[in-house]
């Protein structure tokens, strides 16, 4: 990142009292359209003004070549009704993440997921009608088991795979966005907000759990046949899940509600699920697993970074890391290695869950981002085995931990895979999914996650474990703007006192010209060029950091000129340091 600090120190006029940042819009006749002004960061010594004008690179052509139509915005899935079916999610390619649990089978009509597509993919012919996928089982795990037992590796001669590939490839090429339903919204975990039916189900489940604790159903390895009276006299042992003791406080209600929602508030089914989960946790050795050293080879495959706009921790699953053959073999080449990878992923999940807030008003779910760039395809046998091995385990023992599942850099084959398994997922599960192609990935993430919280490799400003930019942190808010095709955006930062102004600016993908200058208020002063207009390319540093020592009142102008036919995302933030 370049850091330029030109200085100018003429006599300084008396500074008025600092005012809060304001956003203004130029009334220049060159302005094309007005946009909603972005909110600027609170800076006592500066204020903002944003002006949009015609790009100099395209002004001469505007009378003859109007800019192309704008692409559609990302759209989300919105369910028509409440969840009534299986609690399943599609298996992710290699890495594992919480999957919604399975309830008694109930057939429902599949609904499309959100697909975010770039503007270059809109004008292809319509796809052929999709064929129905018929199966005897509604379980994703059983589908994959049959596939492993009798279905050959996907080839050009495989009718089912080829048909799905052709159908979805056509959808991707033409970029036909499906009809959408309401986006999933998390329910309240406060007892006062529950319906009478839900409150009654919770009380019934608490009674069953209390009886099970009192009779040692959760803690006994086997029922005592030799001395049942002794077993009855023993004090009940505390039972915990994810570090939360059951029935000790209102955090337990949040845990029980997860199981109830996973089983559509069927109390008996939810109780059986809890009992089986407690038993599995003992057999798998969850408490011991938390202290195991399983190495750090997979730390780039799955990691937590930042929070979304609603306060959910964000988990990134980077499947392209498995392009590394050594890493792939280390994770999936045989049963022993697959089990070790599974234990590592469960350990990571358990540690992440224990950092959540299980109070009734807290955030007890995780925002999942799955990066499918360069991901191994579904033809990998080891991959299918690992996915099948994890699927049933996650859906049965980690209910309702996904707040939203966003897939970015989505290739055509994953949409084909989703097309095949979509009929076997519930409306609730599908309403959590959002798909975005490479051109829309950053824009889609910004819809849910503040830009300052998005890692730099995904278009944001957040740099982890780095002292290269000590002036800003994830706590410093950034302003997001759209630079329309063939237009120029000017960000005006008004200076009210002597200071060193520091700013950070990024245009995702660049392909724009950028310049900066300081314009003093005094009539006899000269404009200072901080940076001449410079063409920025995708090969340049993704984020530009600059500073300017201000010795008199005036304003700093940051100008971004977009001569392309694509709209661009502009991010910036600034702060001042008194001197």
Write a brief caption for the model.
By secondary structure, the protein is of the alpha/beta class. Helices cover 26% and strands 20% of the residues. 38% of the residues are buried.
Structural key phrases:
579 residues, alpha/beta, six-stranded mixed β-sheet, 13 helices, elongated, disordered N terminus
Model regions low in confidence, pLDDT < 50 over at least 5 residues: 1-44, 58-65, 71-96, 101-140, 146-182
Class by SSE composition: alpha/beta
Q: How many strands appear in the DSSP assignment?
A: 19
Largest sheet: spatial strand order: 2-3-13-18-15-16
Strand content: 15-25%
Could you describe the largest sheet, including whether it forms a barrel?
6 strands, mixed
* Shape, per Cα inertia axes: elongated
What integer value in Å does the Rg equal? Answer: 28 Å
Helix content: 25-40%
- Give the distance, in angstroms, between the N- and C-terminal Cα atoms: 24 Å
Instruction: Note the total helix count.
Output: 13
Quote the average pLDDT.
76
Quaternary structure: single chain
What report would you give on this structure?
Helices cover 26% and strands 20% of the residues. It is of the alpha/beta class and 579 residues long. Helix 8 (325-332) packs across helix 9 (335-353). Mean pLDDT is 76; it is low at 1-44, 58-65, 71-96, 101-140 and 146-182.
